[in-house]
Amino acid sequence: MRHPLPTKRLRIALGTWVAIEARAPRAEDEQPAIEAAYAAIGAVEAHMHPTRPGSDLSALNSAPLHSPVEVRPDTWHLLKLAQRLFVLSEGAFDPCLPSQPGRLSDVEIGSEEEDEEPTVICHAPVRLDLGGIAKGHAIDRAVATLGAMGCQSGLVNAGGDLRVFGDRKETVLLRRGTEFHPRELENAALAVSDLDATERPEEHQGYYSCVDVGRVSPSFTQRYAAVVAQEATIADALTKCVLLCPNDLTARILLEFEAHSV
């Protein structure tokens, strides 16, 4: 007989606590699926780390200028999404840290061919760091892995950014000042970001530096953003747009991805 509760696990990954919950028709399939989901998260963490030897970003950040660098398909797709957001946000969404002069517009992302690894070319010195979007991508990879291994519903929560799928529902509390507002998620993802000039995560400096160097006016920046989207990658990325773009531009970007700010 099927046990009444899903399998749940909690581990450290992506620099935070990651909780995974899975429910499958057969209870014995849940633990292997969760193990595979954590492995998928670990792969994203390794391949997209900005300095770890063997990572795609480390290779790009240290490559000679104008030289093609082969990257994994996951990295290529995430860089393509970042490039799209860079254009839509008029440069506000930029995962290039200010420690190097290059911006995402200096990165040429080649076409993806089925018979070869995709390539990326840097035409100016860059320090790419996808910390503001890769967490969401890791969550999505974990959810995809759970589904591929037969799980019909579940949840992946990485430090407050989360995605639920199947018939699983989750009520989260969003804080506004001293008040908390409940929000129910079903087959959706939620991500939050906080613009704090004194406590910004190091990996987010690429996005937030556009305020510091005057690329965007601080007069329309918000201090807090929460976005609901179908995928955690999109929700994670769009919080940066909500924080850094004027309201009319933010509205167009959210509509482009069928997401909404909450």
Low-confidence stretches: none
Distance between the termini: 40 Å
- Overall body shape: globular
Would you count the extended β strands for me? 10
| Main sheet record | 7 strands, antiparallel
> For the residues shown, what is the average pLDDT?
88
- What is the helix content? 25-40%
Q: Into which percentage range does the β-strand content fall? A: 25-35%
Strand pairing plus helix content: what structural class? alpha+beta
Strand order of the largest sheet: 1-2-6-7-8-9-10
Radius of gyration: 19 Å
Helical stretch tally = 7
Structure overview:
33% of the residues lie in helices and 27% in strands. By secondary structure, it is of the alpha+beta class.
What distinguishing features does this structure have?
262 residues, alpha+beta, three-stranded antiparallel beta sheet, 7 helices, 10 strands, 27% strand, globular
